[in-house]
Amino acid sequence: MESKFLEVEVLSYNKPGQPPRPVSFRFMMGEEMFKGKVVKVKDMKLDNRMGNKIFEYLCDTVIEGNGSTVKIGYEKDSMKWYLKSL
Prior knowledge:
The protein has strands at 6-13, 21-29, 32-49, 52-63, 66-75, 80-85. It is mainly beta. A hairpin with a 2-residue loop joins strand 4 and strand 5 (66-75). The protein is globular, with a radius of gyration of 13 Å. The two termini are 21 Å apart.
């Protein structure tokens, strides 16, 4: 089954006892690599989906010079980051 979310590589800020905070990220679409920077985390919530803890961040970002608001998710058990909307 193919995931509807795009897996991304994220550089995050980690503090003991707190969830990670995304700082910058990159992802591939086809043959092209895109880089983005998180300008501000507007909201963060914890979602327990089928027993998996997923931290969802609503972020103001700059991707290749263009500003946008995106959702970035972090799955704690697999330690993977996903771009949920672009």
